[in-house]
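Submission sheet (multi-component)
Chains listed below:
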Amino acid sequence: MSLHTLTVAELAAGLRARQFSSLDLTLHFLGRIERLAPQLNAFVTVTADRALADARAADAALAAGSAGPLTGVPIAHKDIFCTDGILTTCSSRMLANFVAPYDATVVDRWRTAGTVLLGKTNMDEFAMGSSNETSFYGPVRNPWDLQRVPGGSSGGSAAAVAACLAPAASGTDTGGSIRQPAALTNLTGIKPTYGRVSRYGMIAFASSLDQAGVLARSAEDAALLLGAMSGHDPRDSTSVDVPVPDYAAELGTPLRGLRVGIVKEFFDQGLDPQVAACVHQAIESMRREGAIIKELSLPSLPLSVPTYYVVAPAECSSNLSRFDGVRFGHRCDQPRDLMDLYKRSRGEGFGAEVKRRIMTGTYVLSAGYYDAYYLKAQKVRALIAADFARAFGEVDVVLSPTAPNVAFGLGSKTSDPITMYLNDIYTIGANLAGLPGISIPCGFAEEGGSSLPVGLQLVGPHFSESRLLSAAHQYQKLTDWHRRIAPGYE
Amino acid sequence: MSLTRTQVEGIAHLARLELTEAQIPVYVESLSRIMALVEQLSAADTGGVEPMAHPLAGQAQRLRPDEATEADQRDKYQRNAASVAAGLYLVPKVIE
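Outcome: structure written.
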């Protein structure tokens, strides 16, 4: 047994029992990062000095008896979270020189909990992508097959945790950016209810959809880390003032009696048969444990992708207007005038996909098109939310595959944005309706000589994170899929 | 639905994005395909449906008391700017 394959819960117990120090742990992970992160391109910035300082402080707290449950546990943050005094790039040329002047609330809370910051992980540029190939710093590779993508946009966080370079990492999820990479790299990834986690200091993409969450190697770890980042924050006007349950304490809720809805629209012809087989097998395991399986229909759900590709770009075009080459971010050389400064700074600073989304959003919001596109999409969004609300009158959770396929080859979907967008077909609905969702490992598919992870998704009503985590934990007690580690990274 | 080159140039101008000559046809094609995908929405019956702007029903944006809570950190913030002088952000001359 090696330190890097231990779960967060096991690491925390070992630290308290003084089996190893936080400094031991931190040096161990920094060594792995130095050796293995380059082949994955998982990190934008490794914060070794900060990590060692954090570890020494954690060891002092452990010795003084003032440690919390996560004190001394190393973590990584997606490079979308502002970290005071540390480069925060959002994997964009636009922010390649941006040193954040303050900590995001998520960063602040995990730090207050005593965690050790190992570094900032690579991601799709401004979180716009499903394969981590839009990063200014180049694609992230999947530890299960280096010729394949890890999913996106939290692909660096996913690759780092899957390769045991960090015990857990933060992510953000606007249309599936935690759950889809979790599925493609054999992790447990949770996107909580909209408003559950503060977005203060989290660089905005689409403000009515964005939500922070966790990528970890078990539901128990996700519970510990989600609890530590959740809660009301007056600095985010969309943060809700609802008490945070003790997620870890509620993991024991049994599967018996859990009403699980199987959405027939989610098992359509676009689904890889091997993925479908793994998910069906998981449904059978849950049924044997006493879960009540019910088929149901969410008739508006097939419209979630077109709805998303109006709402998200519209909000992105507005949010990203702040990058003007004046106050922060990339500025072009020798601007002729103010208009030239704006246009060239933005044209040079943003990558191709970010420009595509800004232009899509600008178009759907422009005079004469607003009603036909933006208002219409907001109405269809209401229909999708109503479908879920009806479903939760009959069932406790909705179960589906997380993604329609396993990890695909680098470059195989980059030429056609629509093909890439359809990768989020099962995850986007939860964002549109503001619902919590979790992806957990449920098997492997063989493709191109590789054994590749398959994930299933559970979506629940608003603020049902405890139910999702306990269902995931109970399933993980029955199975060992989540314990499997990519060959070469054990 | 198909967008024209002129439309794409107009959108890029509104979005304050300079495109290279080579990028324009790429965006004409991909934006047209995205708008074709979005066209699926027109088939949905949304009669009498209220548009949804916030994912949590009944949640309104909170207002906070209008009190100064942050310390002045102008110098720190301006370290990320390309060009500042005397606490001001510098841009090319706007008024001749």
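Remark: Chain A touches chain B through 74 residues (CB under 8 Å).
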